[in-house]
Amino acid sequence: MENMIIVDLETRGFQVEDGIFEVAVLVVENDVIVDELHLGKVCDVELIYDGMGEGYEDISVNDKYRNSFKYIIEKYNYPIIAHNASFDRKFLVYYNWLPEDYPVYDSVRALRIEHPHLFSYSMSFVSNYFNVDQRHSHTALGDVFALYNVIKKANPKTWIPLFKPLPSQFKSKAKNLLERGMQLQGESSAFEGKHLVFTGASQFPRVLMQEIAVACGASVGNSVIKKTDYLICGEKVGQSKIDRANELEIPLYTDEWFIDIVFNDINLEQADNIVKDDSKSTFNRKIMNDSYIESPYKQLPEFYGKKVNVACLKASVQKRVIKILEDMGASVNKSPSGKNVDYMIYTDDGDYVMLKRAEEFNIKLIAASSFNRMLLE
Hints:
Layout: E1 3-11, E2 20-29, E3 32-39, H1 63-76, E4 80-82, H2 85-94, E5 104-106, H3 107-114, H4 123-129, H5 140-154, H6 167-183, E6 195-199, H7 206-215, E7 219-221, E8 230-233, H8 239-247, E9 252-254, H9 255-263, H10 268-276, E10 307-309, H11 315-327, E11 331-333, E12 343-346, H12 353-358, E13 364-367, H13 368-376
Parallel strand pairs: 1-4, 4-5, 6-7, 6-8, 8-9, 10-11, 10-12, 12-13
Antiparallel strand pairs: 1-2, 2-3
Helix pairs in contact: 4-13, 6-7
């Protein structure tokens, strides 16, 4: 994407009622920053680098700041890019900083497509992986510059528009969304003759998703069987369905993929081309699990026969790292004591007592992002 508006904001919580405290904007044209904006009303300058909006006042309904944001958005009218964009978007729309239909793209999704073998897509992880300085993390200004540099280095080529109705408003919109889906009957054949199964937690009501699928020519079931064409997954998908789909070689896709196809005028052939348009990317919108993607990881002989502690890794990453290490002949230790090992692989932004004691026990520390880079370079 040549022209974009990169946005980051800091709030005091996850609900829109928690308010907006800091906003940063970078306008990028052909990889070059041509304009920038930083909004925040400082109430305690000593706290502003603590992040998460500390040291700033709530500016959610402040017309001065809101109008400044609107002005730069209207002046350039480029698509907005944000990391975990659905989070930022719901605040901006809720407080009328941004029109609901304004094009928004999630950099996490773009990075997943271009770099499908990263352990994590958190801002701290991708910044470390791509060697980007994130000196003031969790501040809007620090994070927006970090994201700009990550995008430059990662160079994602496939951007898919975000479709995320505000959770607080979704119930009132469900009927309208269903009506839109039903209007597709006889007009859209996006899933004509396909058999779909929906699973996992989602902000999109499952009954509604099923109704829309039927309106698009599909049949819907509750169990993964041989005739299933796609397993559409939300969060926390049951392992039994994943295993069954993998056994039957049934592709797994996300809720967002389904919505993209239905409401962004993308047919299945186009969606397949989006996935395959870059030979460097093997992302196919399956749930991000290495069992579904041919492993690109190198064997690292220095770990053969070594003892490696992974207690300081997040659970979502730990399982993958354990398998990789065991495949290389390493012995894995998950004990929180952290003694009697050669290496310790830890979460990049973690603050663990074990890390502080590692030098005492002559243990070599490796950040998860560094280990990930070692495997791929």
